[in-house]
Structure formats: structure tokens, C-alpha cells
């Protein structure tokens, strides 16, 4: 699933990435063809190289790691302390 304001659908991203990777077009030329920026074209091409067609979908923006989060044991004790 892609968000509504995404300029490229996953299929469009795949076509853009293949244009750069498989057809060996420069990212600037591919970006112009797909009406995007060269940095976006390079980013999707890199993701295609690393993950293939499965990498063309949106990723979660949720952080993978939160070093400063409150431990679960502390959260369960908080209501007891405030009553």
C-alpha cells in the first residue's frame, strides 16, 4: 500500500529503478522521464539493488530502536505510585 500523496506507486518505482539499474540510464535521465528528482531515482535504484522488486513498497516510519524509552516494569509501577 502506498500513501495517497506519493508521486510514484510501487509499480512506478519499480519501473524507475529498472530504468536506472537494468537499462543503465543515468539517474538524472530516468528522473526526468518519470518526472522526479535524480536523488529519488538513485535512492529507488539502490533499494532495488538491495531488495529487488519487494523493496519498492513503503516502509514503516516507526523507529526500530528507542534507547531512551521507559522500561515496561517502570510503566506498570507508575499507577501504583500515584494513587
How is this structure best described in words?
This protein is mainly alpha-helical. It has 4 helices and no strands. The model has no long low-confidence stretch (mean pLDDT 87).
Question: Could you provide a short overview of the structure?
Answer:
The chain has helices at 10-21, 27-33, 38-51, 72-81. The protein has 83 residues and is an all-alpha fold.
Portion of residues in helices? 40-55%
Low-confidence stretches: none
Terminal CA distance reads: 45 Å
Shape: elongated
Number of helices: 4
| Count of extended strands | 0
Rounded radius of gyration (Å): 20 Å
SSE run: HHHH
Can you summarize the main beta sheet?
Answer: none
Which class best fits the helix and strand makeup?
Answer: mainly alpha
Strand content: under 5%
The chain-level mean pLDDT equals 87
Amino acid at each position: 500500500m502506498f500513501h495517497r500523496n506519493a508521486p510514484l506507486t510501487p509499480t512506478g518505482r519499480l519501473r524507475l529503478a529498472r530504468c536506472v539499474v537494468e537499462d543503465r540510464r543515468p539517474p538524472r535521465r530516468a528522473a526526468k522521464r518519470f518526472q522526479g528528482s535524480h536523488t529519488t531515482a538513485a535512492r529507488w535504484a539502490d533499494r532495488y539493488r538491495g531488495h529487488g522488486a519487494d523493496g519498492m513498497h513503503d516502509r514503516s516510519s516507526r523507529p526500530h530502536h528507542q534507547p531512551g524509552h521507559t522500561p515496561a516494569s517502570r510503566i506498570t509501577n507508575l499507577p501504583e505510585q500515584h494513587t
